[in-house]
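Loading example: each entry is read as two labelled lines plus one structure line.
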Amino acid sequence: MEHKKKVRLKKIIQHTLLIAFTAVMLYPIVWMAGSSFKESSQVFINPHHIIPSEWNFENYIVGWEGFGGITFSTFFMNSIFIATVATVGSVLFSAVVAYGFTRINFKGKRFWFVVMMLTMMLPFEMVMIPQYIMFNWFGWIDTYLPLILPSFFGVPFFIFLIMQFIRTIPKELDQAAMIDGCNSISIFFRIILPLVVPAMMTAAIFSFYWRWDDFMSPLIYLQTPQKYPVSLALNLFADPDSVTNWGALFAMTTLSLLPIIVVFFIFQRYIVEGISTSGLKS
Amino acid sequence: MSQSHMDDQARLQENTGLPPNRNLKGRFGFGKNKRPRKDLQNGVGYIFLSPFVIGTILLTMFPILYSLYLSFTNYSMGGTPEWIGFGNYVHMFNNDAMFWQSMEVTFFYAGTAVPLRLIFALFVAIILNKVIEMVGVYRTLLYLPSVVGGSVGVAIMWRQLFGNEGAVNGVLSMLGLPTHSWLGDPNTAIWTLVILYGWQFGSSMLIFLAGLRNIPTSFYEASAVDGARPIQQFFKITLPMLTPVILFNVIMQTIQGFMAFTPAYVVTAGDPINSTLLYILYMYRQAFEYFNMGYAAALAWVMLVIIAILTAIIFKSSQYWVHYEDK
């Protein structure tokens, strides 16, 4: 009896501390969402309050109008376009490459696998300048091609993730299909591809929010505001020297995070599993 | 039948390291091959690999070599590259105070932010590992900051949070404590970025948590029978078993720490008096604001060498502290 009580007390303390900790960690996000409903003049009065004294939706309407005659509809459409096309490309082609690495034996496989592991560790920033010069030769500055095309060559992290998954599929399946007259290409499309959908989902979610968050590439490649994705537009919108409507800034900042948060809550199972497995097995 | 037999053969060789079965050689026409033969399908293999091979050559290998060449030129956007030997590097090390400033800032940033994130992640993971109820909820919510963390939106949020009239000062004045110009003071501005990095501990936490779940409970049970206390269990079982995961995290996070850009660009713009001038921000300015492409390429190469050396050191050191179960 005494022992049981002790365990319960321990549990209560544990959860109280955890809830307090989680609340502190989430405070900034909740604070910003709350502030987006405050009237602009109220933003700096009791700034730490998360619940506005009066709920005000005007910020969203005003903020959505954007700047320079371009509304946030344009910026959101641009972001959705870039993120979607890049995601489809990266996931599909990563699966193709992953199949090549796991199921087919060929000369130089080991070499390319090492190359892939090295590229996985090579940050984009290190090749950003020569890539920029190269895309400039092609006349691709101020187009979406430099933002989208690289994903169509497969993304090492996703290739690795899907490889781990393909390895769990019994080889007997391939062999049975081969006896039935399938070649490698039809085995990939008919057998492997449908089975690796969960891994591709994980990759797709990561890709979506990396593309959505991407700031550096649009910053260097895009010049026309009409083509800006949300990340770049928001940065311009939030220029500390010219912002006057703070409420609207909070509103648009909140909206820019909304797609990622929604996608995260819908698909969090895939993300959690993806991170756990890829991080462990390498 | 023969297919699966060959596979078994290959698997056996891989597992045992035994020489290949010589009988198969002549039969499949790979007589000249000294290495264990496998069913090579070079054509098909490269068809599947082609996106990656083309992409790597075009977007990684060529650019990296081209940038090495550029780093020995005075190329600026629009001009023609002119060979100046080690000119960029000599200037960088001898005359460029900004270069040294950004180096100092970046090493300080990576040296504080990366350990902060990892220790935080490990600590929270260990606590969550002990909790049974609602662990999924905590895990999801605590992971959220690292989902949104890299975005411009969060950087803007951070600027407002630590601004003079921001929430942090709001809380301080509510508690009757003195407020501070966090972003205006060169001594504190960098810390706001360090905290922003540490705040995004979620993905490391998930990896640690998965690593903790992989430790067999029998280890703890056996040691408990032997009278080990929880502290001893932590240092003798948990930590050693977790070292491979820690190694992976340390390497990935260190590289990421050195590459930080968006926070410095958006939250502080490198100010005040360059106290938050992270290296990549400086490189970005040289390349895309001053158009010194050759010089920026040299900056990139210096950083590449630094992270390569650091990674090598971490890997090399791992034999002294990483514990592999099968050894």
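The CA atoms of residues 172 and 178 of chain A lie 10 Å apart.
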